[in-house]
Specification:
Bound molecules: manganese (II) ion
Number of strands: 15
Shape: globular
Largest sheet: 6 strands, mixed
Radius of gyration: 23 Å
Distance between the termini: 35 Å
CATH class of the largest domain: Alpha Beta
CATH topology of the largest domain: inorganic pyrophosphatase (n-terminal core)
CATH architecture of the largest domain: Alpha-Beta Complex
Strand order of the largest sheet: 10-11-12-13-15-14
């Protein structure tokens, strides 16, 4: 289904969902469960904002993932309506089993739904309308469709739908497609969004340039501009003044020549980092999404940076800040979120430098293991594994596999290195079988996968990985 037809079918379903929320919410408080990533926080913030406006009481939690246990725990609470946001489509069977007749459940998720018939609850899912939920609409996009019917009009909260889609990396180099591009068009028409091609720095063209360089995610991952003085030195070398009048200089203050010099210099610095800088290079210039409803100079004005900020809040155990930002709160909430973002970066940088010195690593037959234990947060292990797999540090290995304690389980996160991609290892298959053999669950994609194993099984898991590497279907 294409364009308008897809919009209409999804939108009319969203209206039905809004009507359920409104009618049930008049008599009973609502329980919301959302995902902890940037998209999930945007989705949660949107529904929370609408309920707050309607004076419908609710309780919201954000979770790292769903499980059978968590679903039955949550649905046993005393609420009349449960709403799952940005997750749930993979757990329809478990949700149905946990239901009883007095409780109503809404699953608003853009992930592919598991096959099978389900009844007794409402599923709003793009795949059921012929829309590709992996690229054409995010969890926040779905939540926005419900939001607009709850409050009865479109408003500036539409930027959260676009922020969520950016957080889920649904924009390709050519921009958005499907419902996402319709939402962008609607936001432009409403006068809350501007899209233009520019250098993609944190905060956008109207944000102070020095912190913009420091906070741009890809540059930071490469170790560039970690300190303000490195950014200041660069500007001084290019003879770009630090101030305009008595305020800090912004990207939008630069002349075309200055901007070109800055671009060239950043490209040079990225290139000096070798192959690990490739994705930073492709991300450096392109579509920039600006929320013109946000004040000039605010870190929430450029939406890709906004999603970075939300992501950091979720990963550092402060999803409450992310939800509040997505609901529209600023002031001290925004200050704390920015502080959380710098903590996030500091923690990542410290962990990386320890790992580079050989701490917490184990090298076995082509596999670099990162043993996070309790020291590395389970929400950071994936990011660290991914950075390491792209760095020179792992060039003699086929893959990096990180482990970190996660509640009563151990989270596993695996990424292929260039060498691993070249020899054709299938991580989905490797993770699936090795996690299962030690009593856990795993899977994912060819180049990036993960899973969970029981605590205490780490040694056996490492041995199992090495065994599985010799088996068919792992090497293709
Ligand atoms: Mn999502």
């Amino acid at each position: 289904m294409e364009g308008k037809g897809a919009w209409e079918s999804l939108n009319s379903k969203a209206k039905e969902v809004a009507e359920i929320i409104y009618s049930v919410g008049k008599s009973t408080p609502i329980r919301i469960i959302t995902h902890i990533d940037a998209d999930g926080l945007c989705a949660g913030g949107l529904i929370a904002k609408a309920l707050r406006k309607l004076k419908i009481p609710f309780h919201l939690s954000s979770v790292k993932f769903l499980s059978k246990e968590l679903i039955s725990e949550i649905t046993s609470e005393e609420y009349g309506l449960f709403i799952f946001l940005d997750l749930g489509a993979g757990y329809l069977k478990e949700i149905r089993e946990a239901l009883n007749s007095e409780k109503r459940v809404l699953v608003l998720d853009h992930h592919p739904p598991v096959k099978g018939s389900y009844s007794g609850f409402y599923l709003l899912n793009p795949f059921n309308e012929g829309i590709d939920g992996s690229h054409e609409i995010s969890g926040a996009g779905i939540a926005y469709l419900v939001y607009r019917h709850l409050i009865g009009r479109d408003d500036e909260s539409l930027i959260m739908a676009i922020t969520g889609a950016l957080g889920d990396q649904q924009a390709s180099e050519a921009g958005f497609t499907g419902i996402n591009s319709l939402l962008v068009g609607l936001a432009e028409k409403l006068g809350v969004l501007e899209v233009k091609k520019d250098l993609r720095l944190f905060g956008g063209p109207d944000y102070p340039l020095v912190p913009a360089l420091q906070r741009t995610y890809d540059l930071n991952l490469l170790g560039l501009f970690q300190e303000a003085k490195e950014a200041v030195n660069l500007l001084e070398r290019l003879k770009i003044p630090l101030k305009v009048g008595d305020r800090a200089i912004r990207l939008s203050d630069l002349t075309i020549e200055q901007k070109r010099d800055l671009f060239n210099e950043i490209v040079k610095q990225i290139a000096s980092r070798g192959e690990s800088g490739l994705s930073a290079l492709t991300n450096l210039y392109g579509e920039v999404y600006l929320a013109i409803s946000e004040p000039i100079g605010s870190p929430t004005r450029e939406l890709s940076g906004f999603s970075t900020l939300l992501n950091a809040c979720g990963r550092m155990g402060r999803p409450d800040l992310g939800i509040a930002l997505a609901m529209g709160f600023r002031g001290t909430v925004l200050e704390s979120a920015l502080q959380t973002l710098s903590n996030y970066r500091r923690v990542l940088a410290e962990a990386l430098s320890k790992i580079m010195e050989g701490e917490r690593t184990r090298k076995e037959k082509g596999v670099l293991f990162l043993l996070g234990g309790e020291e590395i947060r389970d929400t950071l292990i994936g990011t660290l594994t991914s950075i390491l797999s792209r760095s020179k540090f792992s060039k003699d290995f086929f893959m990096v596999i990180g482990l970190a304690k996660s509640g009563s389980l151990v989270k596993v996160s695996a990424r292929l290195t260039e060498a691993g991609v070249r020899v054709g290892i299938n991580l989905d298959s490797l993770m699936r079988r090795s996690c299962v053999r030690v009593g856990g669950i795993g899977g994912g994609h060819r180049h990036a996968a993960g899973g969970y194993i029981p605590e205490g099984e780490e040694e056996r898991f490492i041995e199992t990985i090495l065994e599985c590497l010799g088996e068919p279907k792992v090497l293709e």
